[in-house]
Amino acid sequence: MRICWANTENYDESDVVILGVPDESKSHSLRKGTSEAPHKIREISNIRDTYKRGNETSAGYPLGGINKKVYDYGNILRTEVNDVISKIVSKSKIPITIGGDHSISTEIIRSISKRYGPISLVYFDAHPDFISSSSGYYGSVLHDVLPDIDTKSSAQIGIRTPEQEEIDNIKKYNLSVITPLDILKNGITEIDRTILDKIGKNTYVSVDMDAIDPAYAPGVSVPVPLGLGNLEVLYLLKSIAKKGIVGLDIMEVCPNYDIKDRTSHLASRMIAEVISSLNET
Ligand SMILES: [Mn+2]
After folding, report:
1. Are 240 and 196 in contact, with CB atoms under 8 Å apart?
2. Ligand 1: centre distance to CA 57 (Å)
3. Structural domains in the chain plus CATH codes
4. CA 251, CA 101: separation in Å to the nearest integer?
5. What is the pLDDT of residues 226-274, one digit of tens each?
6. Residue 227 Cα, ligand 1 centroid: separation in angstroms?
7. Per DSSP, which regions of 133-261 are E strands?
8. Which of 78, 123, 124, 213 could form a disulfide linkage to 207, CB 3.0–4.6 angstroms apart?
């Protein structure tokens, strides 16, 4: 099943390529099931983000519509990530990857940096994923991609439950961190300006859905209260997309723990809104 935002069957003419990586082998979470997310998000998009009249089906687009050509590549294995992402970015197409556990982002970012050099990383997450005493899993993404990112022009957003080791690494590498309380205090427009001023030409955005408050996104593998509002995340995502991105991922949706599929539905609409904002790039 294709995501409802796909509007071409011709890979070569596509601007945006959606792909799923249904793999959670590098997760340590007690809550299993993120490998179900690529299927569930596509399914929900076809049920709740489309309207049917007789035999006609049409998608409920974001205001502004979608002018880019969107191709759904289907699902791939973790071991295929490097080859497939390299192929997509070699033609300057924008990959939008649905996980799976967050360590899949490590492999995507490595492939993307081979094409563009060290990238600006905007990392939405409740957790810094900056463990360095262990590697190659969903808690060590930041440390694992250090050679592939430009830390000066990168930022983490939504952080609220760092371990001491991660606090030390954030300081050591001078990584910018924006907490939910920073957004409450300074307002979304000022935070937006700060992020746009910081990021460089080649920006990759990684979204762990647990960045968002569990009230909006209960279906994640490691929920943490006191998170970002759904519209705060959306505002920043659309703004960054408008400036230009080299790729996006949406990770850690865990359908088994969701409430009436609201997290999958939110993920589907976030993908549509980001693609819509690319109209201006
Ligand atoms: Mn994460």
Report:
1. yes
2. 35
3. 11-120+204-280 (3.40.800.10)
4. 6
5. 999 999 999 999 999 999 999 999 999 999 999 999 999 999 999 999 9
6. 13
7. 155-157, 176-178, 203-208, 247-251
8. 124
